[in-house]
Design brief:
heterodimer; A: 561 residues; mainly alpha; 16 helices; globular; B: alpha+beta; Immunoglobulin-like; five-stranded mixed sheet; elongated
């Protein structure tokens, strides 16, 4: 079996085509290429990020001072509903699909995903789902004129979502938008699993498959298990609203708690679905920037599988205040704390990967380092919330808001930023501006921590979530003002990031095929990769094929890796 | 008073003297909240220790092994793939910590959830409504709203048990200094208990999103000593001067107020809104949003949507004299 042991032959010069708008549009709309679809996922996710970010900024403006009245109560409730829904389903989920799509074929030496058309179908379902959700701002009033966008919270607790309490069509748009996007997500998950199982290049056993691919495959399994319960519950809710099925309609004997179980059986694995891309990215970026292989690779994969399994049995920790029995409250406290063990292994192994290495502190690595510290905080506040009697106090307070923004921004988004900077030269063929990227990074770190550290304390002083205003004199003022000031830095950071991406795509200096001295197969093809990815199907002999190529005297396969 | 913390825990205070507005969960003034505070401090101590160790390790690694100017860029560090012993160590230690935490958690869960009632117990029913609290005292035949009067006892020999339910959507009962929260869910009965150790007014909120005015669904627990509580209860039990047919009462009975509100001894028997029989004895209006003064009451009746946008009480668009009569009538319902 030949490893990649010789330089690749020169590539044919690409033929320059005449630019035309219609041809350009046709190319993007009709494409089944995994790279274009991956980019479309990521770019739409970033657009949704900006929209939902603006919503967050308006909310923080409202809460900067007590008795704020910049927006009306209904408007505020719509803002937090749309913010949460968008960030979870239209930022987090497309990032999972986008990174999987773009990178998995490149990393396993394949020319495309297993089902390219299903791939395109998944993307368009996701995008239409998002558009449907946002169309509610126009169409949500229905015939009753009962308000625009949904205002039931992203968790849409029954019976607030039933017709008597949510007239008009806004809740229906919430159901349909998420339902549609959910079908796209399931399609994409099936594709990821099939691709990783059947499309790996010769020599790439599962043990040699990049950890990124491993994590995204486990993520896809988790999607397949977790999303259908939500889809089912949404259909039941739609039956309630249109056909009088009364599953969750308490006035007709339905159960409000049943919805909560359905929602969190989806909702808790969902937060791991959102964090896994960050785990996947860190497992690639930290080794390359430390110049060492991932420490304890089998344990790292096992830890992700462990987290996936345990995450299916922790959902009712969102329901400690529902009035469950002492046995249930203890069971779900215990299962939730168990998640800390595999998560701890991950943090320790990443740190051990860095230990003894030569850390290159470029922007992707900076984001990884910030991730480690911030996700550590998130994990530890998670342990506090898992202690169910402590949660009786903290539940639905701003402490929870601070906690999950630490996981989802300090964790997931920071991980995704690391990935975006790391693969930017591969995708665009150009280097981003390192100086601007560092400014953006520090602004983000300062802004994020300034916003979310104080909110822990507001929660411990009894500030509940989802309130559009609050009175003077309850000790919440200082924390809220600090949080709102932090938003300014975060906006600056995102602005600098956006400018950096746009400017560097056009004016950045050429990156070359392998700017980071990487080890996985995507760095062996050109930047940006050609439509067919690899001219010659690569053959690998270890988990780090490019390391083997670059260090012929000291290849990984000699050590059974 | 709330700030004196532990020392104040067993001190008897003058009833009704203090309003505990800063609802710090670390300054509990009742048994459930104190148990939750203790387990909270324990958890915080454990997690802080973990944070110091792990964050220290991460920061040390970053500082010690970051690339410095002048490093040989072509010299790769030793390639270490892993170590079973080390990985086993950082798997086993967290497992031990988790087991300790589970044990402590279970103990507190049982002590709060399955506590047996003390000899003297008051039973209340609290019913959540969009966006106010109905409070029933079945043993006294009293129905009131938003301000829950209970006796306090410095020695914990007296407690109040709450049966929680909801008339519409899910709500949550949270008075941080007395106890953690328990949801009020339609079609379901939940229970919780509180035993305030000091007199005073304990402020709380609805903690489950319940629609437009969730933010202004405030809660007050008024803890008084036994005699003051009994006096209050007797006052509430009286049906007020049913023979006194003032102009205000006539106006009230002639308007649609009676469809949603109760005033004992009158035609008003509506159950949708708060019971107004003793409205003037409450210190706040609109579920704790504004203080109960004649001016505020007038503003509220004139246009509730102005005060609390989206609330379920409509503006009746009353003229001047009728409005004033109503305000003075309601103001007389001590």
């Amino acid at each position: 079996m030949a490893a990649i042991d010789q330089p690749l032959p020169a590539r044919p010069a690409t033929i320059r085509e005449e630019f035309s708008w219609s041809a350009g549009l046709y190319k993007w709309v009709a494409t089944v290429d995994h790279k274009l679809l991956g980019l479309m996922y990521i770019v739409s996710a970033l657009v949704f990020l900006v929209i939902a970010g603006i919503m967050a900024a308006v909310m923080r403006l409202q809460l900067a001072f007590p008795n704020g009245h910049i927006v009306a109560p209904d408007t505020y409730n719509r803002l937090f509903t749309m913010h949460g829904t968008t960030m979870v389903f239209f930022l987090g989920m497309p990032m999972v699909a986008g990174f999987s799509n773009y990178l998995i074929p490149l990393m396993i030496g394949a020319r495309d995903m297993a089902f390219p058309r299903l791939n395109a179908f998944g993307f368009w379902m996701f995008l239409f789902g998002g558009i449907l959700l946002y169309f509610s701002y126009i169409g949500g009033s229905g015939l009753t004129g009962a308000g625009s966008a949904p205002d039931v919270g992203w968790f849409a607790y029954a019976p607030l979502t039933e017709k008597p309490f949510s007239p008009g069509a806004s809740t229906d748009y919430w159901i349909l938008g998420i339902f549609t996007a959910g079908i796209g997500t399931i399609a994409s998950a099936i594709n990821v699993i099939a691709t990783a199982i059947s499309m790996r290049c010769p020599g790439m056993t599962l043990a040699r498959m990049p950890v990124f691919v491993w994590v995204m495959v486990i993520d896809a399994w988790l999607i397949l298990i977790a999303v259908p319960p939500l889809t089912a519950a949404q259909i039941m809710l739609a039956y309630d609203r249109f056909l009088g099925a009364d599953f969750f309609n308490t006035q007709a004997g339905g159960s409000a708690v049943l919805w909560q179980h359905f929602f969190w059986i989806f909702g808790h694995p969902e937060v791991y679905i959102l964090i896994f891309p960050a785990f996947a990215i860190l497992s690639e970026v930290i080794p390359v920037f430390s110049r060492k292989p991932l420490f304890g690779r089998p344990a790292m994969v096992a830890a992700v599988i462990g987290i996936g399994f345990i995450s299916l049995g922790v959902w009712a920790h969102h329901m400690f205040a529902v009035g469950m029995t002492a046995w249930s409250n203890t069971f779900f406290a215990a299962s939730s704390m168990l998640v800390g063990i595999p998560t701890g292994i991950k943090i320790f192994n990443w740190t051990a990967t860095m230990f003894g290495g030569k850390l290159r502190m470029d922007t992707p690595m900076l984001y990884c380092c910030a991730f480690l510290l911030q996700f550590l905080v998130a994990g530890l506040t998670g342990i506090m919330l898992a202690v169910s009697p402590f949660d009786w106090q903290l539940h639905d307070s701003y402490f929870v808001v601070a906690h999950f923004h630490f996981t989802l921004i300090g964790g997931a988004v920071f991980g995704i930023m690391a990935g975006l900077y790391y693969w930017f030269p591969k995708v665009s063929g150009r280097m981003y501006n390192e100086r601007l990227a560092k400014w953006s990074f520090w602004s983000f770190v300062i802004g994020f921590n300034l916003t979310f550290i104080p909110l822990h304390f507001a929660g411990m002083l009894g500030m509940p979530r989802r309130i559009y205003t609050y009175p003077v004199g309850r000790g919440w003022e200082g924390y809220n003002l600090a949080a709102s000031i932090g938003v300014i830095f975060q906006i600056l950071a995102v602005g600098m990031f956006a400018w950096n991406v746009i400017y560097s795509c056009v004016k950045g200096k050429k990156a070359g095929d392998d700017p980071w001295d990487g080890w996985t197969l995507e760095w062996s093809t050109s930047s940006p990769p050609p439509e067919y990815n690899f001219e010659k199907v690569p053959v690998v002999r270890s988990g780090r094929p490019l390391w083997d190529l670059k260090h012929p005297q000291d290849p990984d396969w000699k050590f059974g890796q | 008073m709330a700030s004196s913390g532990l020392l104040a825990f067993f001190q008897v205070q003058v009833p009704g003297a203090a309003e505990h507005r800063v609802t710090d969960i670390f300054k509990p003034l009742a048994t459930p909240a104190a148990a939750e505070r203790d387990v909270a401090w324990f958890t915080i101590a454990v997690t802080t220790l973990i944070f110091i160790v792990v964050a220290g390790l991460i920061v040390y690694t970053i500082v010690r092994f970051r690339r410095r100017p002048g490093d040989d860029l072509h010299q790769e560090p030793p390639q270490v793939y892993g170590s079973n012993q080390i990985e086993l160590a950082w798997t086993v230690i967290p497992i031990l910590i988790v087991f300790v935490l589970i044990g402590v958690t279970a103990r507190v869960v049982w002590s709060v959830e399955n506590a047996s009632p003390p000899p003297s117990t008051l039973h209340l029913k609290v019913i959540g409504h969009q966006w106010w609290w109905e409070v029933q005292y079945p043993d006294y035949g009293i129905t009131t709203a938003n301000e829950i009067h209970v006796p306090f006892s410095a020695d914990g020999k007296e407690a109040t048990y709450l049966e929680l339910s909801s008339a519409d959507v899910a709500h949550s009962f949270w008075v941080p200094q007395l106890s953690g929260k328990t949801d009020l869910i339609p079609n379901r009965l939940n229970y919780m208990w509180i035993d305030p150790r000091q007199g005073g007014v304990y402020v709380g909120n609805c903690a489950e999103y319940c629609g437009t005015q969730h933010a202004n669904m405030l809660l007050r627990v008024v803890a008084e000593d036994r005699s003051a509580f009994q006096a209050w209860a007797q006052g509430q039990q009286k049906a007020l001067a049913s023979s006194d047919v003032s102009a205000g009462r006539a106006a009230f009975e002639s308007l649609s107020c009676i469809n949603c509100h109760v005033i004992k001894g009158t035609k008003a028997i509506g159950k949708f809104g708060p019971d107004l029989s003793h409205l003037a004895s409450r210190s706040t209006l609109a579920a704790g949003m504004i203080t109960n003064t004649p001016e505020n009451l007038k503003k509220w009746i004139n246009d509730p949507q102005e005060v609390k946008p989206g609330c379920l009480m409509p503006s009746l668009k009353l003229g001047g004299p009728e409005l004033d009569q109503l305000v003075s009538y309601l103001g007389s319902l001590k």
